[in-house]
Amino acid sequence: MDEEPNEKGIHQWLDVDEFPEHLKKYWHQRFKIWQDYNKGIWMTEDGWFGVTPEPIANKIAAHLAESAPKDKTIIIDAFAGVGGNSIAFARSERWEQVFAIEKDTKAMKCAKHNAKVYGVDKKIVWVTGDCFDVISRRFSGKTNVIIFASPPWGGTEYSAEDVFDLTKMEPYNLNKLVQSFSMHSKHIVLYLPRTSDLNQIARYAPEGKKLEVTHYCMMGASKALCVYFGDFNFDVDETEEKSPA
Ligand SMILES: C[S@@+](CC[C@H](N)C(=O)[O-])C[C@H]1O[C@@H](n2cnc3c(N)ncnc32)[C@H](O)[C@@H]1O
Q1: To the nearest 10°, the Cα dihedral for 138, 93, 113, 9?
Q2: pTM check: above 0.90
Q3: What's the CATH code of the domain at 64?
Q4: Is the domain of 22 the same as that of 142?
Q5: In this structure, is residue 195 part of a structural domain?
Q6: Considering the domain boundaries, does residue 212 fall inside one?
């Protein structure tokens, strides 16, 4: 795409010499993060730390498409960032509506543009604002909504500990996320650090039930995990779906 960003803080880095030195590792990973990077992806500096790499975003979108109850027709990407997950949800074509909420206006501009690069910008409803506020204003009382949330993990130091303490996640800890979102949907998916404390997560399992936790890997190594709250069905037997010979 020819369109170039014309706002400070939004970049279309196509040349390694222009790329910020402190982010260099992301330059080497750019095609793993965005397969269509050279078609004109826009990024903010912070966007690199949080963006969900395209293969992982696609896998999550596929898992959600397969496992979510059929009567759930709206997916909300509560922390849309530069668009990684929203784009994947729109491309999966599973949802009647994909809502992308993001409070940072520059990240939001990148997300909209990146969705255009992938040909799905018109399939997403874009809302700039605070997700807790937007969700309670627009989705209160709705029963057909799934909330996907890839919150900030509190900076780049999250991987320093062997086990990541979700009570200390900044600026929203696990309890804040679960409490706030569960007021509006029983179907919530949280994208969290791969080292997240599973004992802390298990405390939110309904009595007598388990929560599904899935690790998402690239090149054999886990990059992050998703916790699925609600009635997701991961036991789809593919042989059952085939018609009898
Ligand atoms: C980890 S990033 C999300 C990355 C996204 N999944 C992607 O692929 O680009 C978290 C994002 O949440 C945004 N954010 C933080 N607090 C928010 C809030 N209360 N409402 C909406 N967005 C928020 C940040 O600006 C940041 O862009």
Answers
A1: 60
A2: yes
A3: 3.40.50.150
A4: no
A5: yes
A6: yes
CA dist 14 to 11, 17, 18, 119, Å? 9, 9, 8, 20
Do 38 and 144 have their domain in common? no
pLDDT tens digits for 66-96? 999 999 999 999 999 999 999 999 999 999 9
Q: Is the CB of 53 under 6 A from ligand 1?
A: no
Ligand 1 center from residue 233 Cα (angstroms): 27
Q: How many Å apart are CA 167 and CA 239, to the nearest integer?
A: 41
Do 25 and 131 belong together in one domain? no
Cβ contact 58:28 at 8 Å: no
What string of DSSP letters covers 51-65? PPPHHHHHHHHHHHH
Q: Is residue 34 part of a domain?
A: yes
CA of 131 to the centre of ligand 1 (A): 9
d(CA 164, CA 193): 7
What are the C-alpha distances in Å from 193 to residues 11, 109, 160, 162? 27, 26, 11, 11
- Tokens matching residue 190: 């949280």
| Alpha-carbon gap, residue 15 to 159, rounded angstroms | 29
3-class DSSP state for residue 179? helix
Distance of CA 92 from the midpoint of ligand 1 (Å): 21
Domain that holds residue 203: 52-229
Q: Are residues 43 and 78 in the same domain?
A: no
Tokens of residue 193, six digits: 């650090």
